[in-house]
Design brief:
Largest sheet: 5 strands, mixed
Bound molecules: dinuclear copper ion
Shape: elongated
Strand order of the largest sheet: 3-2-1-5-8
Structural class: alpha+beta
Number of strands: 12
Number of helices: 8
Length: about 350
């Protein structure tokens, strides 16, 4: 008996922790790290407050009604409403007043949140393009030096305190761009560009996730977001803009030959080499990212080698076909890819 009670208590504690754990962390709108997410969080709490208060009032009224009916049925005399009694009328006025006040608070709250989200559009400084693919993210930065585009995938870096304008598009079906800690979610629609501004207020790593069902691997369509100090961001962008340097040893040279002259180059680009494929993610600074296959695997050599050998086992339905390589070539390719920092 005591054991069962302790078990229940432990389960309740665990449930409470899991419930609260959802409020913090790297993928939560209740732990804002951006101006836009902050205003959405304020609106959320206002709605909770107003609607929670009204809910409690309705429940209290219902309880009183049931209690009175029960007393009447049990033959206990209940207070009757007599002609000329002003109380019901006053209660009605109070109730209407509360509803009008509550709804007005919600209207003002959502108007202000909307203004905050729209206000950023006037001072966006940095231009980034994000295109949804089944099932990964093409990310392009406008190069401040040349005006061209610097391409990467599945990892978005943004500077702290500056507004980044993200232009969202899709290459195939409808996806949805969502980094709950930083900003609202917005659909990515084929044949159309949507604009989303984000102004980060706290540095750190966050997780973005496709928020619109887009096929079998929708759940494996995630990306990492790093909010960093402006000077760190500039350094990162300058590194991303550089083409690859020459392989430093025989193994990576062999890997480069396989990647840039074989099947990989039909879909992937490695800037500075003969590989200029467009359908798949750009691999120029592949190993500078934290994950492989849009958040599916950690960036480790074993995971990379496994992914190349068996992409359809790890992410069934993905566009990446298995690439049959000799053991020596597979080893060289993974070494080469891990050297692309
Ligand atoms: Cu893309 Cu869900």
């Amino acid at each position: 008996m005591g054991g069962a009670g302790a078990m229940t208590a432990r389960r309740l504690t665990l449930a409470a922790f899991l419930g609260l754990g959802g409020c913090a962390g790297v993928q939560s709108p209740l732990s804002p790290a951006g101006t836009q997410a902050g205003s959405i969080q304020s609106l959320f709490w206002l709605m909770m407050l107003v609607c929670g208060f009204m809910y409690l009032l309705v429940m209290a009224g219902l309880t009183v009604g049931v209690w009175r009916g029960w007393r009447k049925r049990s033959g206990v005399s209940a207070p009757e409403v007599r002609p000329g009694d002003q109380r019901p009328q006053r209660m009605l006025i109070l109730w209407v007043g509360l509803m009008v006040g509550g709804l007005t608070a919600l209207i003002v709250g959502s108007f202000l949140a909307d203004r905050t989200i729209a206000a950023a559009r006037r001072d966006a400084a940095l231009e980034v393009r994000v295109t949804g693919h089944q099932w990964w993210w093409r990310i392009q930065y406008r190069d401040p030096a040349t005006g061209g585009w610097i391409e990467t995938a599945n990892e978005l870096h943004v500077p702290l305190g500056r507004t980044t304008r993200v232009t969202l598009g899709s290459a195939d079906v409808v996806h949805s761009f969502w980094v709950p800690n930083v900003a609202q979610k917005l659909d990515m629609i084929p044949g159309r560009l949507n604009l989303l501004d984000l102004t980060p207020t706290r540095t750190g790593w966050f997780r973005g996730q496709c928020a619109e069902f887009c096929g079998a691997q929708h759940a494996h369509m995630a990306f990492d977001v790093k909010v960093e100090a402006p000077q760190d961001f500039e350094r990162w962008l300058a590194a991303q803009a550089r083409p690859v340097s020459a392989p430093s040893d025989a193994a990576t040279a062999r890997g480069q030959a396989v990647v840039t002259r074989g099947a990989c180059a039909m879909c992937h680009a490695v800037r500075g080499t003969a590989a200029t494929g467009r359908p798949g993610p750009d691999l120029t600074h592949f190993a500078s990212r934290r994950s492989v296959a849009a958040g599916t695997l950690p960036m480790r050599r074993g995971a990379v080698q496994g992914w190349i050998a068996q992409p359809q086992a790890l992410k069934p339905g993905a566009m990446m076909p298995p690439v049959p390589l000799s053991p020596a070539d597979a080893d060289a390719v993974s070494r080469y890819l891990m050297s692309l920092k």
